[in-house]
C-alpha cells in the first residue's frame, strides 16, 4: 500500500483559491539504487615522499593517477639540515 501525498497549488495574485491537484504516490519520490560503475576514478592520489637520509622525515604530495613511474625529488630535510633525495612511498 502506497501512501498518497495531497498536492496544493500555492496562492498567487491571479488565483485567490487553492485548488487541490491529483495526489502523487510516494513511489515516485523513492530514489533508484545506484548503477554499478557510476563512480568516477580520482584524477590524483596522495603519495608520501620519504627521506633517503633515513631520518623518517617525509612530505605528502599529490600525484596524477596516470603517471606510473615512482617520483623522486631533491628536497630539504630539516633533521639533517641539507637537501637530500626523497623517494615515493605509499600512504599508510
Describe the structure.
The chain has 92 residues and is mainly beta. It has a domain of 46 residues: Rubrerythrin, domain 2. 0% of the residues lie in helices and 43% in strands. The protein is built from no helices and 6 strands. Strands 4-3-6-5 form a 4-stranded antiparallel sheet, with no helix packed on it. Strands 1-2 form a two-stranded antiparallel ribbon. The protein is rod-shaped. The two termini are 50 Å apart. The relative contact order is 0.19. The mean pLDDT is 79. Belongs to the bacterial ribosomal protein bL33 family. Keywords: Ribonucleoprotein, Ribosomal protein. InterPro entries: Ribosomal_bL33 (IPR001705), Ribosomal_bL33_sf (IPR038584), Ribosomal_zn-bd (IPR011332). One of its GO terms (cellular component) is cytoplasm. This is 50S ribosomal protein L33, chloroplastic.
Distance between the termini: 50 Å
* Largest sheet, strands/sense/barrel: 4 strands, antiparallel
Which term fits the overall shape? rod-shaped
Strand sequence of the main sheet, in spatial order? 4-3-6-5
Low-confidence stretches: none
Our estimate of the beta-strand percent is: 35-45%
CATH class identity of the domain at 44-89: Mainly Beta
Total helical segments:
0
Q: Label the structural class.
A: mainly beta
What is the fold's blueprint, element by element?
Elements (H helix, E strand, L loop, with lengths): L3 E5 L11 E6 L18 E8 L6 E7 L7 E6 L4 E8 L3
GO molecular function: structural constituent of ribosome
Keywords: Ribonucleoprotein, Ribosomal protein
InterPro entries: Ribosomal_bL33, Ribosomal_bL33_sf, Ribosomal_zn-bd
Amino acid at each position: 500500500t502506497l501512501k498518497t501525498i495531497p498536492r496544493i497549488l500555492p496562492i498567487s495574485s491571479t488565483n485567490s483559491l487553492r485548488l487541490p491537484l491529483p495526489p502523487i504516490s510516494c513511489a515516485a519520490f523513492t530514489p533508484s539504487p545506484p548503477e554499478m560503475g557510476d563512480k568516477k576514478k580520482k584524477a590524483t592520489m596522495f603519495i608520501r615522499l620519504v627521506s633517503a637520509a633515513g631520518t623518517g622525515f617525509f612530505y605528502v604530495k599529490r600525484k596524477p593517477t596516470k603517471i606510473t613511474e615512482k617520483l623522486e625529488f631533491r628536497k630539504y630535510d630539516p633533521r639533517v639540515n641539507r637537501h637530500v633525495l626523497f623517494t615515493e612511498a605509499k600512504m599508510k
